[in-house]
Each structure stands twice: as C-alpha cells, then as structure tokens.
Amino acid sequence: MRFGSVTFGVAALLGAALFAAPAAAVTASSPHPLNVRNGPGFQFQVIGQLQPNAPAQISGCVSDFSWCGVAVPGLTGWASAEYLVTSAGGKLTNLKVAGANLGIPVVIPQNTGGPVATPPVGAMIPVAPTAAVVQPNAPAPNVVSFVAQQLIQPVIVDGEVVVGAVLPPTVPVYPVPASPYVYSYVNGQRILIEPATRRIVYVVQ
Fold first, then answer.
1. Given phi > 0 = left and psi -120 to 50 = alpha, else beta, which region is 166?
2. Is residue 122 part of a domain?
3. Which of 73, 101, 129 is the last residue before a domain boundary?
4. How does DSSP assign 113-127, residue by residue?
5. Has residue 13 been placed in a domain?
6. Each residue's pLDDT tens digit in the chain (205 positions)?
C-alpha cells in the first residue's frame, strides 16, 4: 500500500508541474548603472548598460541564477544577478537569491562569442545597493586618451566594474602622468582608481 501511495503522489506532482500556468514575466533593475555583456560571466565583452532603476525583462538564468538574460529596448544580453533586484515575489529582493522561486526558466547560453580564458584574480568589493554613488567629473581628455592607448595585460575579477566598487589587492594598477589616479584594465574595461582606497572612480567608455 505504501508503494502505491508514493506512486500516486509522484504522479500527482508531475501532473501539477505539467499543467501549471506559465510563470508571469519577471522584471528586474539595478540601483546603479550595470553592464550588459554578451555572455554570462565577467570575462565576456560589455555590449551596453542598464540605466539605474530602469526595468529589464528577464528571459532566463543560468542554473545557479548567478547570471540572467536581460532585455530593454535596443539591448539584449547578460547581467550579473547579484546586482539586480526585483519585486516580482511581492517584496524587493536580490534576483540571485529569489530567482529560483520566481519560475524563471533555466537556460543554456549559446552564441556568446567566447570568453577570455583567464581565471579571476580576486573578488571585487561591490557597492552596497543602498549606497549613493556620486559620479565624478570626467577626467581631462589627455588622461582618458592616455589610459585608452596603453597596452597592458587585462585581468578578470569576480565582480562587476561599477563606480564606487573596490578592487582586490591582487589587481595590478599603473600610474597616470599628471593625475592623482592610477589605472587598470579589468573585466574588459579600462578604469581610473583612487590609489589609497583602490576605489573605481571612472570607467573609460
């Protein structure tokens, strides 16, 4: 009898899964500008940005919900779920934490263009979601031009490149002539950094 009841229970669960209504569309946003990449990883190329608090449609996530497909008008790609928040579950929640409970489909990335085969050298200290990040004035054009032209080894860090985030000590930095900042090339982006704090102050676009 026990075997029969277990079999019926499994069948009922399968039936519920097969005939459940489709999950509602999920949107998410970031309180700060957030890079959109052509693949699910910090080593993939940046193809655009989500603007602060602008809702993006979530098309699916990788199996551990660390990266999700996002879409806004004119831009489709991948964003780190750690930096996304959603109210789809009834309260504001980090998408990486809530994604598995929201019915977001798990997808296998395809046609991403291929990552740079370099392991991360450390983890970024991210900006707190509630922190107010003041965008600095753009540096002098000669500083931006200098940083953009330097041939240095790119490094991969576990964490998104955003103003206010702090680089791990393992990331090499280089001096900028006649500037209070140093620079580096992290996750495919050239950045200016405060030497004392290692805080990102400017991202060269």
1. beta
2. no
3. 101
4. ---------SB-BPP
5. no
6. 343 433 333 333 223 232 233 345 889 999 888 999 999 999 899 999 999 999 999 999 999 999 999 999 999 999 999 999 998 877 888 888 888 888 899 988 776 655 555 778 888 887 765 555 566 677 888 999 999 999 888 899 999 998 889 999 999 999 999 899 999 999 999 999 999 999 999 998 8
